[in-house]
Amino acid sequence: MNDNDCCSVFALLSEYLDQELAPATCEELEEHLRGCPQCIQFVQSLKRSVQLCHHYGGGTAPPVDPEVMAGFRRAYEEMLAKRRGSHEKTPQV
Amino acid sequence: MPGEVKSDAELALNLLAGDEDAFTQFVKAFHARLSQYSFLMCGHREDAEEVAQETLLKVFESIDQLRDPSRLKSWVFRIAKNECFMKRRKSVFAPMVELSLDDLRPGKVNDGEAHRIEIADWTALPEDLLLDTELQNALTRSIQELPEIYRSVVLLRDVEELTTEETAEILDIKPDAVKTRLHRGRLALRQCLDHYLRTATEGGQA
Question: What CATH class does B101-202 carry?
Answer without folding.
Answer: mainly alpha
